[in-house]
TrEMBL record:
Bound cofactor: record note: Probably binds two magnesium or manganese ions per subunit.
Pfam family, one: Exo_endo_phos
Site positions per UniProt: Interaction with DNA substrate: H256
UniProt protein name: Exodeoxyribonuclease III
Length: 267
């Protein structure tokens, strides 16, 4: 089974490339983030022509997640256990922003997650990010007992180590690399998950994100923030994992590259 995750940065803007990538990479399951559309507006018919069922959870211009599967789609769950809302400019944006979607595909439980960015360390969004990550760990703890293989895939907006950014000095006093954010990843691991580290097809570190500005991609000034965590049943079945850096190339691409995981499942 091939499972992938990709922050597509607007499914409508990226639809031709999404369809082309589905044809070329042939994932059995694809977790998407930042679809930036209502669930009803997701181009289900177009991906359906390629054999994929769709579960989409979105609310317009921002955020949004989806799971595409050609091996079955069941037990869909929108949002996390006790998921926090975010107070912005005195107004509660949403009790549950569309950032997490769970589904079972051919016996494998997957969660597509788009972790809040955090913006700045002293911004309320940073505190929201940490609360959201705590809710993610609680949700995984709830789902793990008695489950089949389980994985959490998506844009975590956290670089796990200093080596996962092109220059740690460039991120001084920035989000994505703070001790508290990395501690939240450690808490996720304590639930019983381990990270699946992908191989790099070019360069030493398999970065997954490059800013559109200042020629960041050609200069390989990237970050590894799109991550895959799995329980022992999932990680023990991993035969290969890599970042499809080629998809980031050219005009009209997302600023993230897909991360692909190949599994050899018994039975």
């Amino acid at each position: 089974m091939r499972i992938a995750t990709w922050n597509v940065n607007s499914v409508s803007a990226r639809l031709p490339r999404l369809l082309a990538w589905l044809r070329a990479a042939e994932p059995d399951v694809l977790c998407l983030q930042e679809i930036k559309c209502d669930g009803e507006a997701f181009p289900s018919a177009e991906v359906g022509e390629l054999g994929y069922e769709v579960a989409a959870y979105g609310a317009g211009r921002w955020n949004g997640v989806a799971v595409l599967s050609r091996v079955g789609l069941a037990d869909v769950r929108q949002g996390l256990l006790d998921e926090p809302g975010f107070q912005d400019d005195g107004a509660l944006v949403a009790a549950t922003q569309p950032r997490a979607l769970g589904a079972t595909c051919a016996g494998v439980r997957v969660w597509s997650v788009y972790v809040p960015n955090g913006r700045e360390i002293d911004h309320p969004h940073y505190a929201y990010k940490l609360r959201w990550l705590a809710a993610l760990s609680e949700t995984v703890t709830e789902e793990l007992p008695g489950s089949g293989p389980l994985a959490v895939l998506g844009d975590f907006n956290i670089a796990p180590t200093d080596a996962d950014v092109w220059d740690i000095a460039a991120y001084a006093d920035s989000t994505h690399v703070t001790a508290a954010e990395r501690a939240a990843l450690d808490e996720l691991a304590k639930t019983g998950l381990d990270e699946v580290y992908p191989r790099a097809l070019k360069y030493d570190v398999p970065f997954t994100y490059w800013d559109y500005r200042q020629l960041a991609f050609p200069k390989n000034r990237g970050m590894r923030i799109d991550l895959v965590y799995g329980d022992p049943q999932f990680t023990s079945a991993v035969a290969d994992s890599y970042v499809d850096r080629e998809e980031r190339k050219g005009k009209g691409g997302s600023d993230h590259a897909p991360v692909v995981v190949d599994l050899e499942l018994a039975g």
